[in-house]
Amino acid sequence: MSLELLFIGFVAALTPGPDIFLVIQTTLNRSLKAGLGVLSGILTGNLIVISVLFFGFSSLGKNLYFQAGVSLIGGLYLLYVAKEIFTHRKDEIHTSKINAKNLYLKGLYVNLSNPKAIIFFSAILTPFIHKNTMFLEFLSLFIGIVSAFLFAIFISDIFRKNLLTPQVSLYINLFSSVLFFIFSVELLRYSTHKILNILG
Nearest Cα to 116, choosing from 180, 165, 54, 187? Predict the structure, then answer.
């Protein structure tokens, strides 16, 4: 097991991005269980990407058509997420009904719609692909990622139970909506750049 990759996974998962903000925002506005539901989708996306690399398709993440397509779809989806958060910004903090399937799919879509996550995994894991310890290296990175998300969920849940008010929730939702809008614009800009490279 690689402590270096475990640390890289932990830090990378906590770095500001769509996945971590979705987990925090969902936990704060819904519950710990809802945050775990979103996390299960995100982790499934990570496992899909790691499996693709594991079975030798690391060149897929470098393909311009793939990057342009995923960025375009991802940018549009994150724009939709931003709109949904903004639309429901004044909803009650505690929601009794949790649709586990929707939470799972939301986490999965947000994770897989970000080509930069695929590029990250490709850059970090490619040097380990042909080593005898490859599985342990992948496992170390994944444990680091899971640990970081669980840490964020538990801290968010403590905050939700002890400090969250409807006014604070409104500000968090507005902030989250703006962040997801920025992430969507960044992905759409990235997609446009890749499309121009293809055409040029």
Answer: 187
Residue positions counted in the chain: 200
pTM of the prediction?
A: 0.79
Which residue ranges of the chain lie beneath pLDDT 50? none
Q: Quote the number of domains for the chain.
A: 1
DSSP letter at 55 equals T
How many C-beta atoms lie closer than 10 Å to residue 79's C-beta? 17
- Tokens for 155? 């801290």
Q: How far apart are CA 75 and CA 138, in angstroms?
A: 28
Identify whether the C-beta of residue 149 lies closer than 8 Å to the C-beta of residue 23: yes
Question: Which residues neighbour 86 within 8 Å (Cβ) at sequence distance 6 or greater?
Answer: 173, 174, 177
Tens digit of each residue's pLDDT (9 = 90 or more) over 108-132: 999 988 777 777 777 776 666 556 7
Radius of gyration of the chain (CA): 17
What CA–CA distance (Å, rounded) separates 62 from 28?
36
Phi and psi torsions of 141, nearest 5°: -60, -45
Residue 186 belongs to domain spanning: 3-199
CA dihedral 32, 145, 171, 75 (to 10 degrees): -120
Amino acid at 154: F
Query: At a CB cut-off of 8 Å and minimum separation 6, what does 83 contact?
Result: 177
